[in-house]
Amino acid sequence: MTVALALPSARDEAWRWSDLSALPAFADAEPRGGVVDVHDLWIGCGGPRLLFVDGRFEPALSDIRPLAIGPVAAASAHPLGSLVTGDGWTLELAIDHAPVGTIEILHVGTGGSSHLPARIALGEGAQASIVETYAGEGWANRLTRIDLAPHARLMRAIRLVQHSGFVSTRDEAEIATGASLVTTILGAGGADSRIDAQLESAGPGAFVEFGGALLARGQQRHEAAVAVRHAAPGGSSRQLWRAVADDRATVSLAARVEVARDAQQTDGEQSLRGLLLKRAATVNLKPELEIFADDVKCAHGATVGELDRQALFYLESRGLLPAQARALLTRAFVADALDRIGEERAREVFADAAAQWLDASPLPTGEGGPRRETVGG
Q: Residue 88: which of 113, 115, 64 has the closest Cα?
């Protein structure tokens, strides 16, 4: 398939840390196809499950209820989200409805590119938990539209373990009065990624949380650009991100909170932290607050540093080998970003994926003393 791509460039402020140069080649390539073994990729949460291979639904290995496959009412003006067309999956829940078990969605690529839309619409008081996993290779491009009615609750966990290629996701959500949306992302594969989200707290007392841990090594690049807009009073939002960069990898995080004039008593918090395992690695952090209301509580913080030498010394003095001490501190660094995953089994699998990534990383044997710097306020 040949696709003429109109991609943004690094001259665009919102994309200045992005490297999309590989996407045209993925768009022109054909998936390798063939038999795909996904047995070890299922988490096993006991709920409905969907399998997409190269963006195509595989009914024989899926348990679709209560989801639907077909045309999706989702469209976006976002540069990558606008490329997503065709059939996808939809979850619509009626008032006070909740599916049995956590919904599991598995995206597997065999090369080339795939574009898949999705829509989640929860009625008043409805609840759902969804875990998505990206594995394989190629370019997986996804657009997800989310609408939460008053007092609905949605928890999502997204695991990026694709071993090569590129994963791009775009979420656009509207959260009504008293509703709650929590999204936690783990990037622990070998593919590059770009995570975009535009989330609107549209009703009084709405709650939005979006964050996770992005781990990169080699020449890998992870990037997240998330904007939360508070349009109604009494809303709360949390953006907690942890970035770990090894070798010459780059992780970039841009988190933005907008508070409209009528959104009084908004409570917003951003916590962006980066850990450099090698000094040739890069972590870019950009927290932003834009506030037009005068009765709000908003805070943001951003730090980039190396492993604490004093903490390493303490652990080694208690009998741990240097490599064990460094691994323990690095795991602790990302742990709080994954603790918000509500499904226990998913939380364990995500923590194991992060541990496997760290175990495979040749942690530094010492590159000098700790160095910390603050970006933003």
A: 115
